[in-house]
Amino acid sequence: MSHLKTIEWVNDAVQIIDQTRLPLELVYERIEKIEAMHDAIKTLKVRGAPAIGIAAAFGVYLGVRDTSGVKNGKEFSAIVCQKADYLAGSRPTAVNLFWALERVKTKAAALAAELLPVIEIKKKLLAEAQDILEEDRHMCRRIGEHGLKLLEGKKAILTHCNAGGLATAEYGTALAPVYVAAEHHRFIHVYADETRPLLQGARITAFELQESGIPVTLICDSMAATVMARGLVDAVFVGADRIAGNGDTANKIGTYGVAVLAKAHNIPFYVAAPASTFDMSLASGKEIPIEERDGREITCSFGKQTAPAGIKVFNPAFDVTPSHLITSFITDRGVIDPPFTQNLCKAFKK
Ligand code: MRU
């Protein structure tokens, strides 16, 4: 597993790795205010669906911990809702963000209804954020254990973006089976798509796998077809930002293309995600909001202009892979095979 601490609560503040500075610098940043957390999520200092959820839960606590003069729990709970709504505006696609905010709001309301003093509710909100972090660690470990059997007989996989430890509290999702296999002294070779435009594959996946001693080969996104055609990979493992009730899956832009390629080459395409990434309120992927980011991420990424000034740009940060291209989901509750509408409902409908 990756030994890097993506996000932690240390000495009364949230400590994150500033992922915008990887791989050249490993810089830890202390976040003490909700505004700084909003900025960290929006600018991708902390990124990856599960990590965003954890960050948001701590962010709400940072936003309410210094409130004073609040008369009662009910009034305090309304402030919690305001702070959660503010953080909800940081990024739209990863449902883990909204899942975590909902959980914190529900907790505050329940404690207010029990007439707990505000000071006690504050303590319990911090504990809730810490629980979300701990639970994520366990969920990802279980994804790794369930995914391990899908790696049987396989030597190499391809992944897109970063769905490793740096996208979660610890093990990652798509990379969790690879880390668990390594614990059993089986080293799966990972081909990492560089993942234009923000290079999460090159900057983050390649970095964390190399740090962990897992064999990794970096490729440009446009090389995935060749890697598959040459028989260099046995399967694709990716993460997810939001999975609709029918299995349609939003993940980093380019994932859909990789799924089409995997189908064309008869290679299994697995999506790994914890329960917090399944949005059973959505019937299909058409309803998933897709973030569009600043065009300068394409024309001027990492400070160098690579396109004519004033050019029109389309920069969706995510795409939706239709469920018929997905072989199975690897979740903390086990591997889920088609038919997805039926089987996801059984596993995740409240
Ligand atoms: O824009 P990012 O870097 O937050 O996008 C991250 C991804 O698309 C990941 O694949 C996804 O969140 C799964 S992380 C376990």
Word description of this protein:
This protein is an alpha/beta fold and 350 residues long. The protein folds into two domains: 7-141, Up-down Bundle (Four Helix Bundle (Hemerythrin (Met), subunit A)), CATH 1.20.120.420; 146-348, Rossmann fold, CATH 3.40.50.10470. The protein is 40% helix and 15% strand. The strands form three sheets. Strands 6-5-4-7-10-13-14 form a seven-stranded mixed β-sheet, with helices on both faces. Strands 11-8-9-12 form a four-stranded mixed β-sheet, with helices on one face. It has a three-stranded antiparallel β-sheet with strand order 1-2-3. α6 links the parallel β4 and β5. It starts with 6 loop residues before the first strand and ends with a helix. The model has no long low-confidence stretch (mean pLDDT 97).
Features:
7-stranded mixed β-sheet; 11 helices; 350 residues; single chain; 15% strand; globular; Four Helix Bundle (Hemerythrin (Met), subunit A); 2 domains; Rossmann fold; 4-stranded mixed β-sheet; binds 5-S-methyl-1-O-phosphono-5-thio-D-ribulose; alpha/beta
Bound molecules: 5-S-methyl-1-O-phosphono-5-thio-D-ribulose
SSE order in H/E notation?
Answer: EEEHHHHHEHEHEHEEEHEEHEEEH
Helix content: 40-55%
Any idea of the CATH topology of the largest domain?
A: Rossmann fold
Q: Architecture of the largest domain, according to CATH?
A: 3-Layer(aba) Sandwich
Average pLDDT reading:
97
For the sheet with most strands, the description reads: 7 strands, mixed
Fraction of residues in β-strands:
15-25%
For the largest sheet, list the strands in their spatial order: 6-5-4-7-10-13-14
Described by the principal axes of the CA atoms, the overall outline is globular
Number of strands: 14
Count of runs of 4 or more consecutive helical residues: 11
Low-confidence stretches: none
Helix/strand structural class? alpha/beta
